Each structure stands twice: as structure tokens, then as C-alpha cells.
Amino acid sequence: MTPEQPSSAISAEPLSTDPVDRVIAYHVRTKHHFNRYARSLGYLDWANQPNPFRRFDGAELVRLPLLKPEDEPRSPSYQAIYHPGAVSPQAVTIRTISRFFELALGLSAWKKAGESEWALRNNPSSGNLHPTEGYVLLSSAEGLNLKPGLYHYAPREHGLELRADCSPAAISSLLAPFPSGAFLFGLTSVHWREAWKYGERAFRYCNHDVGHAIGSARIAAATLGWKMALLDGVDQNQIARVLGTHRVDDFSGVEPEHPDCLAVIWPGEAEVSASSHSSREPQGLPLFLDEAAVSGVAAGPWHGKANELSREHGVHWDVIDQVAEASWKTSLEHPTVLLGAAPIVQAGTLHASRTTYDAGAIIRQRRSAVSFDGRTAISAATFFHILQRVMPRVERPQVQRPTPWDALPWDPAIHLMLFVHRVEGLEAGLYILARDPNKLPFLQQSMNPELEWTPAPGCPEELPLFWLLQGNAQRLAAQVSCQQAIAGDSAFSLGMLAEFEGRLRQGGAWWYPRLFWETGLLGQVLYLEAEAAGVRGTGIGCFFDDPVHEVVGIKELSIQSLYHFTIGGPVDDQRLMTLPPYHHLRHE
Known about the structure:
Helix content: 25-40%
Number of helices: 15
CATH class of the largest domain: Alpha Beta
Mean pLDDT: 92
Shape: globular
CATH architecture of the largest domain: 3-Layer(aba) Sandwich
Number of domains: 2
Radius of gyration: 23 Å
Number of strands: 25
């Protein structure tokens, strides 16, 4: 089916000046329907395909050492990164920073077909378009061999571009409240990269990819024994000033970057500076930044001008600018999270033969499946294990959340509606996983009252998985996923259901991107779990929104499906040649 132009019934202007109303209007406007897709160009303008690699002309590039998988620091087993204390914290050095960026945002391979080559990355992306850019703010440290300052990560070169010289005193002031060895990690989005293909729906996909990148960064940090927390108390003006996206001249005449988020990363056993807390206060990690310290870092001097990604844009999608403005976070909060809380010890793996798999190998081999064989099944034990991995365990508030859910400072807003096709020992049909057990009454009240809500047979007691409808759901799953066979030919597929209007009304319009970030983090966990289980996954951004809701009788906007996913036995395209990720650097 070809994307169609919108009907005249869709208004080009927001109906309200209220930011929440505006983001909801955008969401409704960009839904896919059986008879009409969300507005896009309708074809691919190959002559203006965006350059997937942003560079800053005039900024000094520091090449990071190209480490082989067997080089130090070596990654631990895949299972170890989820077990507290199993990975000894590594010092922040030029080698550990190199390993972090390689596993978080680096290249995983090149694909070649005829004369065409394109790169794959360790962080997933909608359509492999990679709108997400990564930054790091580093202080001086022994073994780091980098000037203090803000750097942009260049994945093709596996290097850091110095965007801003920052005085050691300014960085020390900004990082003083955080554990020793801490640094800031930032993400931005180039909306045009997704809009080139997906039109008005692209803002959704860009925020999926922010979530993917948060997940890949948190897991990369875990391989080094590092911790990570999203600084959700900052506003976007602060993020812009720290990352330099506010600098109009640096982006003059080229595609701008939208400042998304900042996170703090630190070696796991490091302590918060005693100077940042009085003796009477519990030790905590602030999820905000001091305004004066932000100004000190943003003083620069700055270097480099962003490169142009496309010669022409053809169509500018104003609605993306409107929803970005409406969801811009202007509020400053001062939340903290306690350090030293008792960690959750994950249950033993249910597919023990794979416990020795190297975490780095799992991360590097991750791919998005393009087709499934329609035959491969997984065991119920493997299925339950995958679902256990996506649980933040919020029912135990005094306990530290498991990796990677400790990176998000909010209670989960996303629940899973599962189409089970080929899970041995489990009846085919429709199931739901309540990722926050406290939300069960809300979920039940928001859906068809005639659904069964029977606990899934054989399911671990701590997993709130419920059977809703029995029967073959392969055709239904494919139909609501824009007629894509991958949703029915897999072992199982799912829709990610968000607590929607209530969360926005209560928290603010800036919650809209965060809902997508949570789905992207879920997607990254599912990608890696599929690889660890010997199968493969892929995200599905194209689905018919309201027909999905009708499957379980969701009405109004209390719940909305934001992202789909599917896992099964992949069918590889043998026509494509795979090349090593940094083979091109050896010939430059």
C-alpha cells in the first residue's frame, strides 16, 4: 500500500494553544489507517537521501583506538551485565571510552550489494536512517589523554570531535555533585533524517531511536561495570546549551539538531562527593544540573560547523517543528535517586547453555530481521525469560532496579500486548504483560470487559502475564502491522501500549517523547534477548493505530500503541555481502 496524502479533514494547524492538546493532535494526525497512511512524500527522493554521518568541519578529530573484541577491556558474559557486582568497574580511560562508544553507537558491519555499501550500527534505528547523534562531556583524568571539553562522536571514523573547550574548573563545578570519575553523555536528533522517508510520523521514530540509544548506551556502560542515570530534571534549554545545539551559526544553512537528553555515567563503585551533601542527608544522586555551572561550560570556546546532510529537502514537515516545540521541556525539577540501594538479584537464566556468550558479541551481532521463516518456535522457558528481562520490578520500591531499567527515573508507562504464535508449551493467542503490576486495574478498565485475564499457565509467579484470547492470531498480527508478514511469521509479536492521555495531562507535554524513549529501550532489550536466545527480532514502526486498539477494545486516548516488535527465526538475504565495521579505516 502506498502512503497517501492526507484528507482535507486533517487540519494543518494545532487546534489549541495548550501543549498537551497540541501533542495529542499531532499523535492523532500521524496515525495510520486502513484507508490512509500518515502524510509522507509517498516515494523516496534518492537524490537527496541524507548523509548518515554528521561531522563538524573545523573541529579537531581525535581518533579512538580501534580495539579488537579480544583486546582489553574485554566484555564480560552477556548474563553478567544483568547481575549486580558481577562486572568490576573499569577506570575511565581512552580505551574504555573507545569501547563504550563502539558498543553504544559504533558501527557493527557494512552491507554491500553490487556497487552500493551502507553501514549498520550497534544502536538500532528506524529504517537504518540513524537520526541520533551522541556527545560526551569529559573532565581530565589519568589515562584519558583528551582535553577537558565537549566532544561529538563520529561513528564512521570512530573518533571524537572537539566541539567546545571547557575550563577544567567549569567541568569540575558541573560534575561536582556526581560520583568520582563521572562524565555526561548526551543525545540529539536530526529530524530530517527520518522525515526524508517517513514524513510527518518521523518525530515518533526519532524518539524511538533516542530510546534505542539510551538502551545501547546503558548496556555498553554495564559491560564496563559503569552505572548510568538519565538527568530528567534538566530542561531542554540547558541540554541545548551543554551540547551546543542552540548555536545558530554552527548549524546555519544545514539540518539542525534537536536536544533530547543528558545522562550521567560513572564507574559503578564510585561514591558521590561528600561536599555535595550535608551529613544529615542520605547519599543521593541528583538528576539535575546547577544553572550557573551550565553557563560556565557553555562559555566555550566552540569549534566546528555542522555539515550539510542533503542538498535539497523538497518538503518541510511543519508539524514536526510544531510537536517538537509543544513537547519542549521548560520545567526544572530537582529529583534525586538513592545510591547504595539493595540490588535486585536476577533469577538464574532459563537457557543456561547460552550464559557464556560474550556481551560484546551479542551487541555486535544484533541485526533487524527482514523476514522470518514461519516455522521456528521458542520454548516457553525462553519466552518467559525474555519477558522477565523487560520488567523494571517497581513492586519493590526499596530495591535498585535491574539493568537497564535503572537508567530511567520514572515508573514504567508501557505494557505489552503479545500475539503468541509459536511458543512451545503455551497456547497461541493474545496475552498482555503488565510491566507495573499496580496498573492492572487501569489496564482492565481501559479494555473490553469480556476479555479473560487468566494468568498464563506455567508462567513464573512474579511475571504478571495474562491470557486474553485464545486462537491463531498470525493473520491479525500481520494485518494490523501494515500487512507485514513479519508480525505473523515470527514466534511472537507484540504492541507496546502506553499509558497515554492521563500521563500527559498529569506530567506535561514533555512526557510525549519520553513514552517513546521507554518503548525504544524496550526494543533494545528485546533485540539483544532475541540474539541471546538464538533467534532475531525487529522493530515495527508501521502499524494501523486504532485497529490495534480495537483488538482489545481500547477506546479514547487512555492507552495508545506506540511501537511494535516481533521475534522469530530469521531468513537472511544471501545476496548481501557483509564487511567488517571499520574495514574502511584500514585503507584510508
